[in-house]
Structures are given as structure tokens and as C-alpha cells.
């Protein structure tokens, strides 16, 4: 793998389902580019802080595991560089960055109380 291919952007598609079972037809989807070298996954265990009564040393006792965390740098482009001439003429090109961010928040952040 060359140096330039290490920093090549990849495409990520996030699907939003209309049912809790995540089967059937998707409600909507969001496609965005991301930098694969920025992808990070973290796991964390928490241990009790207090020392036991009548103990000479502190023993690290497992308490619980925190939720996993996924971190990735998304690249949202609204320049329309990748649009073809016909799609640009018909107004079917890329949405503005603001519209794309709003769509991302709608699909990934705001809760859908119906499912």
C-alpha cells in the first residue's frame, strides 16, 4: 500500500430503518466520505476505587464496562465537483453542506419515537 492510498477517502453509507428489527425497506440513507486513517474504536473497563475493609493492599476489582466508542472523521463536500453535467442542470446534484449536516442529524442523532 503506497503512501497516497493510505490517505484516500472512502465512502460510508448509513442506513436508517423504519422498523426496530432493521429488516425490510430502509427509511432513508446517508452517504458520505470518510478518512479511513481516522477510524478509531475504544473500549473501557471501570474498576472500584475503594479499598476493602481490613485489607493490606488495594485490589483492583472490576465494576462494569462502558459503551464502545467509534470515532471517524467525515468529509462532507458540497462543491458539486463529482456531479455530472446533466445532474447539475436538472438540479439533482449534491446538496449544500448545511442540508447534508441536517440530514445526518435527522438520521443519526434525533430519536424516532415510532420505532
Present the secondary structure layout.
Layout: H1 3-6, E1 10-17, E2 26-34, E3 40-42, E4 45-47, E5 62-65, E6 69-71, E7 74-75, H2 85-89, H3 97-108
Antiparallel strand pairs: 1-2, 2-7, 3-6, 4-5
| Structural class by SSE content | alpha+beta
The radius of gyration is: 22 Å
Q: How is the main sheet built?
A: 3 strands, antiparallel
Mass-distribution shape: elongated
Please provide the count of β strands.
7
- Helical residues, percent: 10-25%
Poorly predicted sequence stretches spanning 5 or more consecutive residues: none
Report strand order across the widest sheet.
Answer: 1-2-7
Supply the number of helical segments: 3
End-to-end Cα distance, whole Å, is 43 Å
Order of helices and strands: HEEEEEEEHH
Mean pLDDT: 78
Content of β-strand? 25-35%
What's the quaternary structure here?
A: single chain
Amino acid at each position: 500500500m503506497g503512501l497516497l492510498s493510505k490517505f484516500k477517502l472512502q465512502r460510508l453509507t448509513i442506513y436508517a430503518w423504519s422498523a426496530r428489527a432493521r429488516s425490510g425497506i430502509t427509511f432513508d440513507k446517508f452517504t458520505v466520505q470518510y478518512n479511513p486513517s481516522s477510524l478509531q474504536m475504544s473500549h473501557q473497563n471501570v474498576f472500584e476505587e475503594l479499598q476493602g475493609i481490613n485489607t493490606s493492599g488495594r485490589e483492583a476489582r472490576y465494576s462494569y464496562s462502558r459503551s464502545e466508542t467509534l470515532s471517524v472523521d467525515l468529509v462532507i463536500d458540497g462543491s458539486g465537483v463529482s456531479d455530472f453535467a446533466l445532474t447539475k442542470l436538472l438540479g439533482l446534484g449534491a446538496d449544500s453542506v448545511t442540508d447534508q449536516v441536517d440530514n445526518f442529524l435527522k438520521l443519526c442523532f434525533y430519536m424516532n419515537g415510532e420505532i
